[in-house]
């Protein structure tokens, strides 16, 4: 014969499962979400601005825009050169 297991109620740690209204929402979920948010701004963003915000190197920024946003998500990224020679990137609507 097998012995029946006694079932004890599960005890949650203190504060688990409760939301406090004073908690602030988290920042953007991922770096790709932050990148997309920066490119959706009306004034767009430069590679330098994105690199500083995400702590990425320039080639990583360009690769993420090309691979993750353009190829995988199908977004259209427009770029334009300003008069001072900087290139601004934004997601075309």
Describe this structure in words.
β1 and β2 (87-91) form a beta hairpin. The chain has helices at 31-39, 47-54, 58-72; strands at residues 77-81, 87-91. The chain has 93 residues and is of the alpha+beta class. The protein is built from three helices and two strands. The chain has a domain at 31-91: Orthogonal Bundle (Arc Repressor Mutant, subunit A).
User: What value does the Rg take, in angstroms?
Assistant: 23 Å
Distance between the termini: 70 Å
CATH class of the domain at 31-91: Mainly Alpha
Shape: elongated
Largest sheet: 2 strands, antiparallel
Assign the structural class, choosing from mainly alpha, mainly beta, alpha/beta, alpha+beta, or little secondary structure: alpha+beta
Total number of strands:
2
CATH fold naming of the domain at 31-91: Arc Repressor Mutant, subunit A
Strand arrangement, major sheet: 1-2
- Number of helical elements: 3
CATH architect. name of the domain at 31-91: Orthogonal Bundle
Weakly predicted, low-confidence segments: none
The overall average pLDDT, rounded, is 85
SSE sequence, one letter per element:
HHHEE
Beta strand %? 5-15%
What is the helix content?
25-40%
Provide a brief overview of the structure.
It is built from 3 helices and 2 strands; from the N terminus they run αααββ. The chain has 93 residues and is α+β, with helices and mostly antiparallel strands.
């Amino acid at each position: 014969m097998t012995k029946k297991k006694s079932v004890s109620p599960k005890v949650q740690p203190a504060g688990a499962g409760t939301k406090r209204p004073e908690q602030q929402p988290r920042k953007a979920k991922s770096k790709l979400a932050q990148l997309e948010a920066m490119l959706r701004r009306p004034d767009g963003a430069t590679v330098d601005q994105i690199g500083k915000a995400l702590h990425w190197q320039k080639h990583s920024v360009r690769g993420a825009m090309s691979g993750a946003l353009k190829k995988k998500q199908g977004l259209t990224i427009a770029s334009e050169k300003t008069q001072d020679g900087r290139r601004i990137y934004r997601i075309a609507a």
